[in-house]
Structure formats: structure tokens, C-alpha cells
């Protein structure tokens, strides 16, 4: 498993490209979006990548960037037309003070 830490100054476009490229390269079964932790599982449900967002969920601009990123990645997943799935729990009261 490879852990990738993302600071709050991330570029939506650059990170979208990075995640989409990883998902296209690997045989991905599931992208589990759970607040600051985005986990990519392979077909055997082994964790291949963990993206951990070290960001302030109370900051509205950061949340907008995260939503944009999430929508970009989900659009890519749906364009793959395979059995890749995603679970979305990006914004939850647990992650917001």
C-alpha cells in the first residue's frame, strides 16, 4: 500500500489527473471516499493507495475543492464502464467541528 498525503493547497486538476491515472493503471474494484481518507482497493479488495487529506473541513473553499475533486473522479469511474465502484462519505458531521 502506498500512502499519499495531500496538503490544503492541492490543485484539483493535478490531483484529479493523478488519481484518474492510478485508477486507469491498476485494476481497481472500489474507491472508498470517507472524509479525509480516500482508499483505492484492487480487485482482491487489498488496499493499494491511501490518499489522506490534511485539510480543514471547516474551510468552505477547501470543501468546494474536495467536492470538485470527488465529482471529477466519480465521473472518471463511471466512464470506465467496468465493475469499478465508489462509496461516498466525503462530508459528514464527524469531520466538521
Order of helices and strands: EHEEEHE
| Low-confidence runs | none
- Approximate shape: globular
The biggest beta sheet reads: 5 strands, mixed
Strands side by side in the biggest sheet: 1-4-3-2-5
Query: Given the structure, what is the number of helices?
Result: 2
**What class, by secondary structure content?**
alpha/beta
Q: Over the alpha carbons, how many angstroms does the gyration radius reach? A: 13 Å
End-to-end separation in angstroms reads 30 Å
Describe this structure in words.
With 97 residues, the protein is α/β, with parallel strands linked by helices. It has helices at 12-25, 60-80, and strands at 2-7, 28-34, 37-42, 47-54, 85-89. The protein has a five-stranded mixed sheet, with helices on one face. α1 (12-25) packs parallel to α2. It is globular and about 35 Å long. It starts with a strand and ends in an 8-residue tail after the last strand.
Summed up:
With 97 residues, the protein is α/β, with parallel strands linked by helices. Helix content is 36%, strand content 33%.
SSE layout and pairings?
Elements: E1 2-7, H1 12-25, E2 28-34, E3 37-42, E4 47-54, H2 60-80, E5 85-89
Parallel strand pairs: 1-4, 2-5
Antiparallel strand pairs: 2-3, 3-4
Helix pairs in contact: 1-2
Features:
97 residues, 36% helix, five-stranded mixed beta sheet, 5 strands, alpha/beta, 2 helices, globular
Amino acid at each position: 500500500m502506498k500512502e499519499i498525503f495531500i496538503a490544503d493547497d492541492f490543485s484539483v486538476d493535478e490531483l484529479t489527473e493523478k488519481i484518474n491515472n492510478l485508477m486507469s493503471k491498476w485494476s481497481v474494484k472500489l474507491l472508498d471516499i470517507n472524509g479525509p481518507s480516500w482508499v483505492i482497493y484492487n480487485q482482491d479488495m487489498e488496499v493499494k493507495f491511501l490518499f489522506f487529506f490534511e485539510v480543514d473541513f471547516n474551510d468552505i473553499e477547501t470543501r468546494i475543492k474536495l467536492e470538485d475533486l470527488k465529482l471529477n473522479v466519480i465521473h472518471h469511474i463511471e466512464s470506465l464502464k467496468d465493475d469499478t465502484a465508489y462509496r461516498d462519505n466525503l462530508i459528514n458531521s464527524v469531520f466538521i467541528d
